[in-house]
Amino acid sequence: MLFVVLLLVLAALGLLVPALTTSDNIWAWSSVGASVLAALVLAWDWWRRRPGDPAADAQSVDQLAAEDDQRVVEPAVADTPPADEEPPEEDTDAADLLVVADLVDEVRVLDERPRYHLSSCSWLAGRPTVGLPVQEARQLQFTPCALCSPDSTLVSRHRARPRDASS
């Protein structure tokens, strides 16, 4: 409906140009007529869609249902983001952060990328990486990858290790 209004407004502007360049009043009145017609179409559309109108609400529900039926569902792709996109950041628990800050287990980083990963991360496939202790990666402001969840994996490994009798 707004497309029709846009066309009418453009027609009114187009009719205004000859009205201003000639002394013929018919162009001016035609421009005014197109503008009034655009206003009437807008008012009719508003009246047809006014809130609280049960007929309009039912029509809206039917239109939404029809749009849902016509919507194409894309099959789910792998969780790995495209090569040019960075994977999301893992949400790390505060208690786990304290443990990670003291760990020296190796994680993998990519040059010019903000995330650190486990060596088994699917996002790293075929990319040149550098190994760093997780403690150093954190100090260098790298953040954990949500795909391979290095923080939770390293913390669970750390907690599963047997404790020395001397400590």
List the defining traits of the structure above.
167 residues, alpha+beta, four-stranded mixed β-sheet, 51% helix, elongated
Which stretches are poorly predicted, pLDDT < 50 over at least 5 residues? none
Largest sheet: 4 strands, mixed
Q: Tell me the number of strands.
A: 4
Relative helix content:
40-55%
In order across it, which strands form the biggest sheet? 3-1-2-4
Order of helices and strands: HHHHEEEHEH
Strand content: 5-15%
Mean pLDDT: 81
Rounded to the nearest angstrom, the radius of gyration is 32 Å
Q: Can you give a write-up of this model?
A:
This protein is an alpha+beta fold and 167 residues long. It is 51% helix and 8% strand. The chain has 6 helices and 4 strands, in the order H-H-H-H-E-E-E-H-E-H. The protein has helices at residues 2-21, 25-48, 54-70, 94-100, 134-139, 150-160, and strands spanning 106-109, 115-117, 130-133, 143-144. A 4-stranded mixed beta sheet has the order 3-1-2-4. Helix 1 (2-21) runs antiparallel to helix 2 (25-48) and helix 4 (94-100) packs across helix 6 (150-160). The protein starts with a helix and ends in a 7-residue tail after the last helix. The mean pLDDT is 81.
